[in-house]
Write a structure and sequence with these properties.
By secondary structure, the chain is an alpha+beta fold. The protein has a domain of 190 residues: Chloramphenicol Acetyltransferase (2-Layer Sandwich). It contains 13 helices and 15 strands. Strands 5-6-7-2-13-12 form a six-stranded mixed β-sheet, with helices on both faces. It has a six-stranded mixed β-sheet with strand order 8-15-14-11-9-10, sandwiched between helices. Strands 1-4-3 form a three-stranded antiparallel β-sheet, covered by helices on one side. Strand 12 and strand 13 form a beta hairpin. Helix 1 packs across helix 11 and helix 9 crosses helix 13. The N and C termini lie far apart (59 Å). 43% of the residues are buried.
Length: 485
């Protein structure tokens, strides 16, 4: 077999690629927006990115497609990899501000990838207020989840303005050659045959173990089997539609917003009540969404929430430095008439319950089965969710990119079927909230952001302030920033 045909996308990665390619409402992009204290050295930045592509092989892999179209794409080293195709620099028009930056990030996110090249791109944006700059990194969700994106950042960024002499040498440039469609098709057929054989053997082995367990430990064996089957049913169930009577529309475009708050306030508020940061984060989101619905004269008892469950560190984690290692828990989250502590308790109990579900760790096999389900049906199931929340820990100390200190880091993630996606990344003492909202589901984005800020104020007990300088239209950094921030 041709050694340059690469490896076939599997499980969750393959399902993500398929649905994003088959339905524009499921476009699956992650944009990491970092604000830099000043413009970094361009050539040094290019060298850092090139170095990153050597440490993270996915950034040099292109999709390859077989003749039959019945298998997931393969990822193989691009023989025509050209850094300049993926990286660019430009300057905002005179008088441009933070809103213009978010608008550019939105256009970047809504533009599909070239599916014959590695699935990423980056841009250095100059001309921001106060002499600052921004670096935008766009990734396809099939090659990286939120934590993998942070891991990439730890390789790309540095701990000081000067390059450390102790940095590890990158691996050599990977070898690549052109691969014909016949080679790809043969490789897919061989992989599918091998996978089918492995499935047959594992099925027989499982049946024998089940038969043995039925004889030696009947109650325990049948109880475990029933729990797994029931868990898969709960995991794969398809809701009728969104639970929100307001955020019902779904389209192919969304808008971004962002704000920040001191991380210590959120962390301490959660810890003082015996909860985790994620519990506090979800409590703030729930309170904000409750306020948003009440603003419109509607009281909603529950909203359907998607919460990524990290599988990193689990036995059998196949990920390396950068890939997806995540499953999605989807459940109704109570939002109306609760105190802050009650919000935290509900979030804590529901996430803990879903983490214990056997089906959560069957995400890849279940994703394989999704190839038998038409993409429109998968999209319809995804669009039944009201909101996706994700909390990603970032570095607690200052980081630098090609000599420029990073002063903010915003996660801007596509809605991927839900009405709203709210993601938090922590960095250097602050919590950075990135928000995407489907244009058909949310027509008054500023009101939603105001209510979400209010939710974080409820949890932390401190003002979060207006939409901060990185998302507002002002041209003076920090113009509307409150003293407490």
């Amino acid at each position: 077999m041709n050694e340059y045909v690469g490896t076939q996308m599997r499980g969750w990665d393959a399902a993500t690629f398929r649905t994003a390619s088959g339905d524009p409402t499921m476009r699956s992009t992650v944009v990491a927006l970092t604000v830099l204290e000043h413009v970094p050295e361009w050539q040094r930045l290019r060298r850092r990115i090139d170095r990153l592509t050597l440490f993270v092989p996915a950034l040099r892999l292109r999709p390859l497609y077989g003749a039959l179209g019945l298998s997931a794409p393969r990822l193989a080293v691009d023989p025509d990899f050209d850094l300049d195709v993926h990286v660019r620099r430009y300057r905002l028009p005179e008088g441009g501000g933070w809103r213009d930056l978010l608008d550019d990030a939105r256009r970047m996110s809504l533009t599909d990838f070239d599916h014959n090249r590695p699935l990423w791109e980056a841009a250095l944006v100059e001309g921001l207020p106060g002499g600052q700059a921004a670096f935008l990194l766009k990734l396809h969700h099939s090659i990286a989840d939120g934590q993998a994106t942070v891991m990439m950042g730890l390789t790309l960024f540095e701990f000081s303005a000067e390059t450390s002499a102790d940095e590890a040498e990158p691996p050599p440039v990977p070898q690549a050659e052109d691969v014909g469609i016949r080679d790809v098709t043969y490789a897919n057929l061989a992989d599918n045959l091998r996978r089918g054989t492995d499935l047959a053997f594992s099925t027989v082995r499982g049946a024998l173990d089940f038969a043995k367990g039925t004889v030696t430990e009947t109650t325990r064996t049948w109880g475990r089997a029933w729990n797994t089957v029931a868990s898969i049913g709960r995991f794969a169930s398809v809701p009728d539609g969104p639970m929100s009577p307001l955020m019902t529309g779904r389209g192919t475009t969304y808008r971004f917003a962002a704000f920040e708050l001191p991380f210590a306030g959120l962390r301490n508020a959660a810890k003082e009540n015996g909860f985790s940061v994620n519990d506090g984060f979800m409590a703030a989101v729930a309170a904000g969404l409750d306020a948003y619905h009440r603003r419109h004269g509607v009281v909603v008892e529950e909203l359907r929430v998607n919460v990524p469950i990290s599988l990193r560190g689990d036995a059998g984690d196949r990920t390396g430095q950068a890939s997806n290692a995540v499953s999605i828990a989807r459940f109704p989250l109570p939002i109306a008439g609760l105190t802050t502590v009650e919000h935290m308790q509900e979030a804590h109990d529901l996430v803990a319950h879903w983490k214990a579900e056997p089906a959560i760790r069957l995400a890849d096999p279940l994703a394989e089965v999704s190839w038998l389900v038409p993409v429109p049906m998968l999209a319809q199931a995804a669009q039944a969710s009201d909101v996706t929340t994700s909390n990603v820990p970032g570095p607690p100390m200052p980081m630098y990119l090609a000599g420029a200190r990073m002063v903010a880091a915003y996660p801007l993630v596509a809605t991927i079927g839900s009405a709203v996606n709210i993601t938090m990344v922590t960095y250097d003492g602050n919590a950075y909230i990135g928000l995407s909202a489907d244009d058909r589901a949310v027509s008054d984005l500023d009101d939603l952001v105001e209510d979400l800020r209010g939710g974080f104020e409820d949890v932390t007990g401190a003002p979060v302030g207006p939409m901060d300088r990185y998302a507002a239209g002002d041209t003076t950094p920090g113009a509307d920033e409150p003293a407490e921030h």
